[in-house]
Amino acid sequence: MSGSVAEPVRDPGLQPERTRLAWRRTTLSGTVAAVLAMKTALHGGVSVAGMVVCAVCSGLWLGFLALAHRRIRALAASPEPPALAPRQATATVLITVALAVCAAALLF
Amino acid sequence: MHVIELVRNVRLWFEPQRIRQEGGTPDYRFSLANERTFLAWLRTALALIGGGFAVDQFLPDLRWGWRVGLALALLAAGVLCSLRAVNHWVRCERAMRRGEDLPVSRFPAVLSLVVAIVAVAMVVVVLVGWEG
Q1: Is B116 among the domain residues?
Q2: Which of B46, B57, B79 sits opposite A40 (nearest CB)?
Q3: How far is CA B5 from the centre of its chain?
Q4: Using the beta-carbon criterion (under 8 Å), do A15 and B32 form an inter-chain contact?
Q5: Tens of each residue's pLDDT in chain B, 132 residues
Q6: How far apart, in whole angstroms, are the C-alpha atoms of residue B100 and residue B98?
Q7: CB contact, 8 Å: B103 with chain A?
Q8: Is the ipTM of this structure higher than 0.95?
Q9: Does residue B59 lie within any of the structural domains?
Q10: Which ranges in A1-108 belong to alpha helices (H)?
């Protein structure tokens, strides 16, 4: 307690931090799924279809990363961050579903 | 009944202002807890999808039908899980704004049963595959 500037009130339950880490964990899970997708796509040698699926999966992964980054920044910006916007939640879910569709396409 | 409810909720996924109009803003910590639950379900979905890739990649000796069937079952479970995650998140958020009880769900029980069935099927398939 040395500074003259008042410290912003910090949630003793560290809710924003825990939420930020939950986003990090989810990004990590998404990374694992995307890497598995690219491994599957390039399994039997490099082909045009494989490259296309790889590019799509990279794009999806980057999209997920961008969404998580935006949310993490919002969480860090204020001591009482606003709730997640439904559009962001839907976007993350749509990315997950698109990844599953890529996986189904790779099976055939 | 469930389907009508789902269609009504799907509109809410894309229209944040519709949620904001209802009731009062809950304590931000409740919203963050709801968000973390949503993310936990999303990780479950991603793990199931990763499992689908893994079946396809790491059980190459299986017959094609079994391999594709198991992989598709896991992928479908992942898709269902992620769609349900956002739906449940919207319902909880709305219930908190209205001051209602949080929604209950049969989904965890159903998902557990599906995962158990897929796991047993994998054990059987791997054992049969080794013998054959």
Answers
A1: yes
A2: B57
A3: 17
A4: yes
A5: 566 777 777 777 776 666 666 777 788 888 899 999 999 999 999 999 999 888 888 877 778 888 888 889 899 999 999 999 999 999 998 888 888 888 888 899 999 998 899 889 888 877 886 655
A6: 5
A7: no
A8: no
A9: yes
A10: 15-41, 48-77, 86-107
